Protein backbone atom coordinates (compact mmCIF):
# COMPACT_ATOMS: atom_id res chain seq x y z
CA UNK A 1 0.00 0.00 0.00
CA UNK A 2 1.31 3.44 -0.91
CA UNK A 3 1.40 5.99 1.86
CA UNK A 4 1.11 9.72 1.46
CA UNK A 5 4.76 10.10 2.42
CA UNK A 6 5.93 8.07 -0.60
CA UNK A 7 3.38 9.19 -3.16
CA UNK A 8 4.55 12.17 -5.23
CA UNK A 9 2.37 15.21 -4.97
CA UNK A 10 0.63 16.70 -7.97
CA UNK A 11 3.07 19.62 -8.01
CA UNK A 12 6.06 17.26 -7.80
CA UNK A 13 4.74 15.26 -10.75
CA UNK A 14 4.18 18.48 -12.69
CA UNK A 15 7.71 19.67 -11.96
CA UNK A 16 9.08 16.29 -13.08
CA UNK A 17 7.12 16.41 -16.35
CA UNK A 18 8.23 20.01 -16.94
CA UNK A 19 11.87 19.06 -16.33
CA UNK A 20 11.62 16.19 -18.84
CA UNK A 21 10.08 18.58 -21.39
CA UNK A 22 12.92 21.07 -20.89
CA UNK A 23 15.45 18.24 -21.16
CA UNK A 24 13.92 17.14 -24.48
CA UNK A 25 14.02 20.67 -25.93
CA UNK A 26 17.57 21.35 -24.72
CA UNK A 27 18.66 17.91 -25.90
CA UNK A 28 17.26 18.60 -29.36
CA UNK A 29 19.07 21.95 -29.48
CA UNK A 30 22.39 20.36 -28.51
CA UNK A 31 21.98 17.54 -31.04
CA UNK A 32 21.19 20.10 -33.76
CA UNK A 33 24.19 22.26 -32.88
CA UNK A 34 26.46 19.23 -32.70
CA UNK A 35 25.31 17.96 -36.09
CA UNK A 36 26.09 21.37 -37.60
CA UNK A 37 29.63 21.11 -36.27
CA UNK A 38 30.06 17.51 -37.40
CA UNK A 39 28.64 18.14 -40.88
CA UNK A 40 31.18 20.86 -41.61
CA UNK A 41 28.78 23.80 -41.77
CA UNK A 42 30.76 26.77 -43.12
CA UNK A 43 29.86 28.99 -40.15
CA UNK A 44 31.14 26.36 -37.71
CA UNK A 45 34.34 25.79 -39.68
CA UNK A 46 34.99 29.55 -39.71
CA UNK A 47 34.21 29.85 -35.98
CA UNK A 48 36.63 27.09 -35.00
CA UNK A 49 39.24 28.52 -37.37
CA UNK A 50 38.89 31.83 -35.49
CA UNK A 51 39.30 30.01 -32.17
CA UNK A 52 42.61 28.71 -33.49
CA UNK A 53 42.72 25.31 -31.82
CA UNK A 54 42.21 23.37 -35.04
CA UNK A 55 39.25 21.61 -36.58
CA UNK A 56 39.70 18.61 -34.27
CA UNK A 57 38.06 20.76 -31.57
CA UNK A 58 35.00 21.26 -33.79
CA UNK A 59 34.64 17.49 -34.15
CA UNK A 60 35.20 16.92 -30.44
CA UNK A 61 32.68 19.57 -29.34
CA UNK A 62 30.17 18.39 -31.95
CA UNK A 63 30.45 14.78 -30.77
CA UNK A 64 30.09 15.88 -27.13
CA UNK A 65 27.01 17.93 -27.97
CA UNK A 66 25.33 15.11 -29.88
CA UNK A 67 26.12 12.53 -27.19
CA UNK A 68 25.07 14.87 -24.38
CA UNK A 69 21.88 15.91 -26.16
CA UNK A 70 20.83 12.30 -26.66
CA UNK A 71 21.81 11.36 -23.10
CA UNK A 72 19.62 14.17 -21.70
CA UNK A 73 16.55 12.09 -22.56
CA UNK A 74 17.89 8.80 -21.21
CA UNK A 75 16.73 8.51 -17.59
CA UNK A 76 19.89 6.82 -16.29
CA UNK A 77 22.22 9.31 -17.97
CA UNK A 78 20.34 12.61 -17.84
CA UNK A 79 21.97 13.95 -14.65
CA UNK A 80 25.50 13.21 -15.82
CA UNK A 81 24.70 14.54 -19.30
CA UNK A 82 23.42 17.84 -17.90
CA UNK A 83 26.53 18.23 -15.74
CA UNK A 84 28.86 17.38 -18.63
CA UNK A 85 27.09 19.76 -21.01
CA UNK A 86 27.29 22.41 -18.29
CA UNK A 87 31.07 21.95 -18.23
CA UNK A 88 31.09 22.29 -22.01
CA UNK A 89 29.17 25.57 -21.64
CA UNK A 90 31.75 26.86 -19.17
CA UNK A 91 34.34 26.26 -21.88
CA UNK A 92 32.14 28.06 -24.41
CA UNK A 93 31.77 31.05 -22.07
CA UNK A 94 35.53 31.28 -21.53
CA UNK A 95 36.13 30.96 -25.28
CA UNK A 96 33.55 33.65 -26.09
CA UNK A 97 35.03 36.09 -23.59
CA UNK A 98 38.77 35.41 -23.80
CA UNK A 99 39.39 34.25 -27.37
CA UNK A 100 36.76 35.38 -29.88
CA UNK A 101 35.42 38.44 -28.03
CA UNK A 102 31.75 37.47 -28.44
CA UNK A 103 28.80 37.99 -26.11
CA UNK A 104 28.57 34.97 -23.78
CA UNK A 105 24.82 35.41 -23.14
CA UNK A 106 23.64 32.27 -24.99
CA UNK A 107 26.06 29.83 -23.33
CA UNK A 108 25.27 31.50 -19.98
CA UNK A 109 21.56 30.83 -20.48
CA UNK A 110 22.30 27.21 -21.44
CA UNK A 111 24.55 26.89 -18.39
CA UNK A 112 21.76 28.15 -16.12
CA UNK A 113 19.20 25.75 -17.63
CA UNK A 114 21.65 22.84 -17.42
CA UNK A 115 22.39 23.72 -13.79
CA UNK A 116 18.68 23.48 -12.99
CA UNK A 117 18.41 20.15 -14.83
CA UNK A 118 21.50 18.85 -12.99
CA UNK A 119 20.02 19.91 -9.65
CA UNK A 120 16.60 18.38 -10.47
CA UNK A 121 18.29 15.11 -11.57
CA UNK A 122 20.94 15.07 -8.83
CA UNK A 123 19.79 11.60 -7.77
CA UNK A 124 20.94 10.35 -11.19
CA UNK A 125 24.48 11.71 -11.08
CA UNK A 126 25.98 8.27 -10.60
CA UNK A 127 25.64 5.26 -12.84
CA UNK A 128 24.96 2.92 -9.89
CA UNK A 129 21.47 1.54 -9.43
Keywords summarizing the entry:
single chain, 129 residues, mainly alpha, 5 helices
Please explain how this structure is put together.
This protein has 129 residues and is mostly helical. The chain has one domain (23-124). The two termini are 24 Å apart. It is built from five helices and no strands. It has helices at residues 10-39, 42-51, 55-71, 78-99, 105-120. The mean pLDDT is 93. Helix 1 runs antiparallel to helix 3 and helix 1 (10-39) packs across helix 5.
Task: Report the average pLDDT across residues.
Answer: 93
Residue fraction in strands: under 5%
Treating each run of at least 4 consecutive H or I residues as one helix, how many helices?
Answer: 5
Sequence stretches where pLDDT stays below 50 over 5 or more residues:
none
What's the helical proportion of residues? over 70%
Largest sheet, if any? none
Task: Give the CA-based shape.
Answer: elongated
Question: How many E strands?
Answer: 0
Order of helices and strands: HHHHH
Radius of gyration: 17 Å
Alpha-beta classification: mainly alpha
Quaternary organisation of the protein chains:
single chain
Give the domain tally.
1
Cα distance, first to last residue?
A: 24 Å
Topology summary:
Layout: H1 10-39, H2 42-51, H3 55-71, H4 78-99, H5 105-120
Helix pairs in contact: 1-3, 1-5, 3-4, 4-5
Compact overview of the structure:
The chain is mostly helical. The protein has helices at residues 10-39, 42-51, 55-71, 78-99, 105-120. The protein has five helices and no strands.
Amino acid sequence: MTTLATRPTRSARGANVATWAVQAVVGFMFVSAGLMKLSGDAVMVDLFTEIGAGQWLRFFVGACEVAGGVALVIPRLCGLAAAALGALMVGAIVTNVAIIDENPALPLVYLAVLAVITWRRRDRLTLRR
